[in-house]
Amino acid sequence: MTFGLITHLLGFLFLLLPLLSVSQTYRNISLGSSLYAANDNYSSWTSPSGEFAFGFQAIGTRGFLLSIWFNKLPDKTIVWSANRDKLVQRGSKIELTTDGRLVLNDSQGREVWNASLINMERASYAAMLDSGNFVLANQNSTSIWETFDIPTDTILPTQTLNKGSRLVSRRSETDFSSGRFQLRWQDDGSPTLCRVAFPTDKVYNAYWKIKATNTSVGLVFNETGKIFLAEIHQSTVINPSENGTTRDSYQRATLDFDGVFRHYVYPKTISKSDRRSPYSWSPVWFVPENICTAIFGPYGSGACGFNSYCILDENKKPNCECPPGYTLIDPNNKWNGCKQNFVSQRCEEGSQEASLYDMIPMVNTDWPLSDSEDFSPVDENWCTQTCLNDCFCAVAIIRDGHCWKKKLPMGMGRTDPSVGGKALIKVPKGYSSLRQSPGMGLSEKKHQTRLILIGSFLIGCSLFLLLLAISLVTYHLYRKRQQKSQPHQAMPALNVRNFTFKELEEATEGFNNLIGSGAFATVYKGTFVVDNKVNFVAVKKLDKLVKENQKEFDAEVSAIGTTNHKNLVQLLGFCNEGEHYLLVYEFMNNGSLATFLFGSSKPDWNQRVRIAFGIASGLAYLHEECNTQIIHCDIKPQNILLDDSFTARISDFGLAKLLKVDQTQTNTDVRGTKGYVAPEWFNNRTITSKVDVYSYGVMLLEILCCRRKIEPQQDDENKVILMDWAYECYMEGKLDKLVENDDDAMDDKKRLEKFVRIAMWCIQEDPSRRPTMKKVTQMLEGAIEVLVPPMNPSSSIN
């Protein structure tokens, strides 16, 4: 008997296995049986051997997945799921109803999924089989529905992937929802791996394929570890290696989230000579061999996200990395692409910005489908210069005498010896300092470390715990009375949410996730889960609100809630319940400008320039473009936050007059922070928006010099007060002293001098001499000339 005939017969034998699966050893699951989603993960229906289980698995803190898993393995590897795109919450139930239907209800009792039975036939019982197949059977013990017929991303030994069915990868390593890769059938009967235009089901071109005829009937995974394409007249073995049987190893074939189809083996017993870890799956075969170079086409981002590149590690697994000057869009998912973490080159006639940028080489790297121009024959020096002179050029590729200029976003990125040539990445000069700046690390681990803001409260003794418990009970009863007497006042005209105090208490884990605190408020990190996505917020708890000012609080929240500017932190909601006044803002991953400026390394000059522009633009909006003028009253680096792309976002705006002022010894109603406070606060003058201009001027000097306004530890007493020292350096024409060891700033000396002049205008003692923030933005942009600041305080530019 020929090998082809043997495999042909084997193929049809295993095609029949799903139909005979109910005849395996099983334990009946009777009508009326049910399971509930709970955190213990032990509520399940197991197969007779205990190797597989059907039930709920908790997916982090996001919810529960109705699934089948390898039950004897430590990590409980999931091989099938029902509700992968819509997790359910604790208390949800899967039930084999008394009328023979398998139904998943959420915690509210609503049906969210059911096993679709053909011809409305009803089951007499269910069974979790030792093959990993969960079946519904009729009274004749014939299978009428089974999970083997509707796989998710995995097939198991004895399972056939029939024509018309498909495997769909998960979204990421920890996200089981549908991803962007599929193993599906073409019209000619060929199984293919392809990308989809996520989140739609539209198919892009295939990147791996087994040529077949329209006589193919399925992709078979047999008990000996072979995967082959069964056709009417022949069978084609796909994975030729010997991988044992299901008697001595667990096996699965999975279309992973990275688009690679892998055959995994997990030995049931580990011999002394076997080096494989008993706690991990080992891939014994996979396709394609190199997905980084296999994926190619006119659409989509490629194996990785836009602006990133794909590279194989030592185990031939693909990794997605960001090129120099770029950072991950989502630190928790490196496959989502990268973004620039510096200010792009400006396109202005006569601009000298080309001299502010360098090109960093990366060998054997390319983004092949982002071309704006192609030049040949040219050399590397010519290619470098033409990209530097083109403000739209982000990357240049030099190979075989060709120079390809690339524009953003870049797709299909790959690094591999087969690529050849060299990529030249445009970044600002002084990139070494950029990489060392806070929040600029390229490794995901370091980036995640920056996102962790640690706050902890230590409770010293049992007596304190007892007193705390009594206080909480008393407080809870008081809050209930307050809620009854003072219901929430909604603000329907705003796009902000009226939170309950309990919601914010739960989101912040009892106000334990401390971010920071000030004279008037304490800020906590909070977490909300919306549509299975974790959203972080900053919850500001106002500690000293004047009790009579609830109407003022509501009016001010109304004013803040209508603001909309890229340089302001967005207000998401509020709470004014009883004595509790809280505000909910966006959470900014990269912390404050103070942390950014005053760290161990000097941040990039171009980023500092961009931040100065952003703050000025945000203040001009508050002062002149809002429906109601908002004066900040406390502009300082601690109140400027940085988002994922290091864009400056002003926080705490419009709150100063809500808060009880700290009384000084002379009882003056001074608001703000020492060193940033305008003189008129102390002179009983009318307070106008010019107090913010003064504070901005002080902070602009800090941004330029990367040092605090007052540094008593300076060796030279002339340097202690930044404003005085900056004015002295300016008058003596020695601005290089202000930006020591900052070559990029000195290379941009004209701009440095202009910014110092602007700062001097902003900190004039007489408010009438200070420019408005709108004029400040025009000065920064070069729209109006910046005159020499006056030594004689009588001159004015207003």
Structural descriptors:
798 residues; alpha+beta; Agglutinin, subunit A; 5 domains; 5-stranded antiparallel sheet; 15 helices; 26% strand; flat; disordered N terminus
How would you characterize the overall build of this protein?
It catalyses: L-seryl-[protein] + ATP = O-phospho-L-seryl-[protein] + ADP + H(+); L-threonyl-[protein] + ATP = O-phospho-L-threonyl-[protein] + ADP + H(+). It is a single chain. A 6-stranded mixed beta sheet has the order 36-40-41-39-38-37, sandwiched between helices. A hairpin with a 2-residue loop joins strand 40 and strand 41 (580-586). The radius of gyration is 32 Å and the shape is flat. It has 5 domains: 20-150, Agglutinin, subunit A, CATH 2.90.10.10; 151-288, Orthogonal Prism (Agglutinin, subunit A); 309-450, no CATH class; 462-586, 2-Layer Sandwich (Phosphorylase Kinase, domain 1), CATH 3.30.200; 593-781, Orthogonal Bundle (Transferase(Phosphotransferase), domain 1). 21% of the residues lie in helices and 26% in strands. The chain is an alpha+beta fold.
Produce the secondary structure layout:
Blueprint: H1 3-20, E1 29-30, E2 34-36, E3 44-46, E4 52-59, E5 63-70, E6 78-81, E7 93-96, E8 102-105, E9 111-114, E10 125-128, E11 134-137, E12 143-146, E13 154-155, E14 159-162, E15 167-170, E16 178-185, E17 191-196, E18 203-209, E19 216-221, E20 227-231, E21 235-237, E22 249-255, E23 261-267, E24 282-287, H2 291-294, E25 309-312, E26 318-321, E27 326-328, E28 338-340, E29 357-363, E30 365-366, E31 371-375, H3 380-388, E32 395-399, E33 402-406, E34 414-415, E35 422-428, H4 431-436, H5 444-451, H6 462-485, E36 497-498, H7 501-507, E37 514-517, E38 521-530, E39 533-542, H8 550-561, E40 571-577, E41 580-586, H9 593-597, H10 605-625, E42 640-642, E43 648-650, H11 690-705, H12 722-731, H13 743-747, H14 749-762, H15 773-781
Parallel strand pairs: 36-40
Antiparallel strand pairs: 1-10, 2-7, 3-4, 4-5, 5-6, 7-8, 8-9, 10-11, 11-12, 13-22, 14-19, 15-16, 16-17, 17-18, 19-20, 20-21, 22-23, 23-24, 25-26, 27-28, 29-35, 30-34, 31-33, 32-33, 32-35, 37-38, 38-39, 39-41, 40-41, 42-43
Helix pairs in contact: 10-11, 10-15, 11-14, 12-14
GO molecular function, one term: carbohydrate binding
InterPro entries: Bulb-type_lectin_dom, Bulb-type_lectin_dom_sf, G-type_lectin_kinases/EP1-like, Kinase-like_dom_sf, Prot_kinase_dom, Protein_kinase_ATP_BS, Ser/Thr_kinase_AS, SRK-like_kinase
Domain Protein kinase: 509-784
